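FORM 7B: Structural annotation worksheet

SECTION A. Query
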Amino acid sequence: MTEAESITAWRERALLRLVEARRAGDQDRAKEIVHELVEVHVALGERRTGTSEEQRTYLMARSTRTPLPELAEVGIDTNEWPLPPSSPMRAEPLPASPDTEQRISSLFAAAGPLGDRRPPRPRYEARHRPQDGQRHRNEPLDWAVWDTNLDLPVTYHPDQELAEYQADGASERYAKKFGRRRETT
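SECTION B. Predicted structure
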């Protein structure tokens, strides 16, 4: 087959030669021609030869498992040929170095579970803590401003509103000065 020649014209001549070889009983010549047809059509399926129209026609026939009619007439089933590539071959991934694996693992560990995307808790919060038994001038101080990082009380107040006000203010000041990130101890 020449570069300027279309696959369709070449295939017609090759099929005529195949029919003549079979009539003459020349099985070796017939096998050669079938081998040529396979090679050319594999190249067509890989888009290395033929016009874009011929490539589309061949690839459509192969994807629908429909043999090309002119080849089917002489008893050639294109479904037995190698499949054309549907996409470029994927390169095998290279193994990562232990250092890279360690860095990636530490990033995933620092990120936490996928579903755990809650904003960080405020540094301080109000908690009802009558069990601590804190009193001032014999008045119970049941509400604590709680340091959520250290898990300890910071101060106690007699009512919830005052404790929440102090905790919110302290959390805002802490966030402005040190950022929203919680410290770990």
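SECTION C. Observations
The helical segments are 7-24, 27-45, 52-63, 69-72, 98-111, 160-178. The chain has a mean pLDDT of 84.

SECTION D. Sign-off
Analyst initials: ____
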